[in-house]
Each structure stands twice: as C-alpha cells, then as structure tokens.
C-alpha cells in the first residue's frame, strides 16, 4: 500500500493499509498555487534524499490543507513516498511508529490532521520529541506534515503574558508560553491558507463541475446557485465548492436521465 493508518488494539499498535487512498491530484487544487509550490518543493527534496523540513499547514477550514497532502501522495508514491496517518490521541506512539519504518527504502510522511491541543493535554510532548527534541536523531526517511486551523497549536491566555502575575501555582507563567510556542516552531516550514474570494470560489466550482462531466454552458448556469450555496453554508471554501459541485452535477444528471427515459 502507499498509505497507512496507525491503529491500536489494546496496548499495542499496528500499521493498517489503506485500501482506497484518496484520488486527489495536485491539478484538482485551484487558487492555492503558492502553497502548492512551497510544499511540493519541500516534498521533492525529501524524495531526492536532500535536506527537507517538517511542515505545518494552518489556516481557514476547507481551504485544501488535507487535500494537498493526499495529492502529494498520489504525485510521488511512484517514487517511494508513503503516508502514515496518526490520530492526535495516538501521538504518544510516534516513537514506535518511527522505529517501524526507520531504515526502509521508502520515504514516509507521518500525517496528523486537524492538530491542536487542549490545556493540560500532554500528548504534544511526544510530538515535540519526534520533531526535534530527543537525544536520538530523527530518521532521514521520516517527516511530519500536520494541518491545523490554528497556527499556535496550544491555547494561550493573556494572563500568561504577565511575568509578575500569579497564574495558578505557576511561578514563571512566561516560560509556559515559551513551551507552547516552541511546538509550532519545531516545524521548519509554516504554510498559511486564507479564505477564498468569490472569483476563486467560482473557479473551484467550475473545475469540479467539469470533472463531473458538465459542459461550459451548464457551468455558467450553475454560478448563481453556487453563490447561494456558499451563502447558506457561510463559507466560500474549496470544500464547500466541491460539495456544491457534487450536489448540482448529480441533480442535473438525474434530471437528464429522467428526460431521456
């Protein structure tokens, strides 16, 4: 397989092969060319066994962060790229996962989606160690790519910025802030995603409608419905555009089939 999930059974874990990886392609991701080029360059360096960084993708929901990693897998799996998806709750197993794949000829991206930590959540420490905090050097065939809706992965509070103010039993609350920020800083590449404007949203709608077999006149006719759909959803994201295109193309193909009969 080219993709795996880390699964737990009791106190032990194993890599489960993904039977149907996402078919997403880089060309399917519209209006995020700068983000694509940056992560693509880093991934190509990794594939070529050149120095490359761990990557944190942050920003607005539905903008293509997760889809970009899936597309990279399809682009570079013929060259040995593999992806292992790990849930946030299983991050404590990262050292075991790394040990499993170290020394193999493939290049592994450990993928953590929608990453953030609540106050008091200690699982982030395992991630820090694997990123850059252990006496052992990370394997050269492993990188971590994570997505998050927030750039700083742990919550911060105004009161923590006051060195001379007591925060619970913490004597030096400012040092707690440094610890929280240090997690994000261990990702060498930060890539930010932003909300789409109307033109970008309609471009994405048109791309997906075309992929579903709609002709140019149909795509033009769908624009008003696409804008109303985004208004009802309160978002002009790539995910919303894809969902609209599926709904509109499916409904109109059904009508065409009924008319033919």
What do these coordinates show?
There is one protein chain. With 261 residues, the chain is of the alpha/beta class. Helix content is 43%, strand content 16%. Helix 3 links the parallel strand 4 and strand 5. The radius of gyration is 21 Å and the shape is elongated. About 6% of the residues have low confidence.
Keywords:
261 residues; alpha/beta; 7 strands; elongated
The largest pleated sheet is described as: 7 strands, mixed
Shape: elongated
Strand content: 15-25%
Q: Supply the number of helical segments.
A: 9
Provide the residue-averaged pLDDT. 83
Low-confidence stretches: 156-165, 170-174
Q: What is the N-to-C succession of helices and strands?
A: EEHEHEHEHEHEHHHH
Total strands: the figure is 7
Set out the fold topology.
Blueprint lengths: L2 E7 L2 E6 L15 H15 L7 E5 L5 H12 L4 E5 L8 H8 L5 E6 L11 H9 L9 E7 L24 H13 L3 E5 L4 H14 L4 H6 L1 H11 L4 H23 L1
Parallel strand pairs: 1-4, 3-6, 3-7, 4-5, 5-6
Antiparallel strand pairs: 1-2
Helix pairs in contact: 6-9, 8-9
Short description:
This protein is an alpha/beta fold and 261 residues long. 43% of the residues lie in helices and 16% in strands.
